[in-house]
């Protein structure tokens, strides 16, 4: 059983810390130096989490599997395109490989449609072959690449 719910406020701070840590780890596969990665993560934190909260129009949803939190989906408007953006999706290890990531992506697309968007975009590390395979199988196409990351999009 799969459903989404708003992430409780008391968990948002630890989620933000986790998200920024994972983002920094993803950037280590790029050509950026450690100092550049730290600067990039700090700038992203200021932009994406103003005053410690979420930006307008952004949602962080827990993926609830079998009655427990089994991951999350972070979505919102894109800064650089007219698309809805999947900033991050993560399914906990014990639930991977069972279609919950695919279900979360389809839920993101439904949210995008409800909000009037005509496309969904995301960024994925070139090295993340599992995620890339999922996105490609759902119809996402690479529209650009830079610093070890792919920009993918799917028209709705």
From TrEMBL:
SUPFAM superfamilies assigned to the protein according to its UniProt record, in alphabetical order: Acyl-CoA N-acyltransferases (Nat)
Record keywords: Acyltransferase, Transferase
One Pfam short name: Acetyltransf_1
Domain N-acetyltransferase: 2-156
Annotated InterPro entries: Acyl_CoA_acyltransferase (IPR016181), GNAT_dom (IPR000182), YpeA/RimI_acetyltransf (IPR050680)
Top-level division of the source organism's lineage: Bacteria
CDD domains in the record: NAT_SF
UniProt-recorded name of the protein: GNAT family N-acetyltransferase
Organism: Ornithinimicrobium faecis
């Amino acid at each position: 059983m799969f459903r989404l719910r708003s992430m409780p406020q008391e968990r948002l701070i630890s989620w933000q810390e986790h998200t920024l840590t994972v983002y920094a780890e993803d950037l280590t596969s790029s050509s950026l130096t450690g100092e550049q990665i730290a600067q990039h993560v700090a700038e992203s934190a200021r932009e994406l989490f103003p005053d410690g909260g979420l930006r307008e129009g952004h949602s962080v949803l827990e993926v609830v599997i079998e009655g427990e939190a089994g991951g999350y989906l972070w979505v919102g408007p894109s800064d650089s395109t007219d698309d809805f953006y999947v900033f991050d999706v993560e399914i906990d290890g014990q639930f991977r490989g069972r279609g919950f990531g695919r279900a979360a992506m389809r839920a993101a697309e439904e949210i995008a449609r409800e909000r009037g968007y005509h496309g969904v975009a995301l960024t994925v590390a070139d090295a993340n072959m599992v995620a890339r395979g999922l996105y490609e199988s759902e119809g996402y196409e690479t529209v650009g690449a830079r610093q070890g990351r792919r920009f993918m999009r799917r028209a709705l």
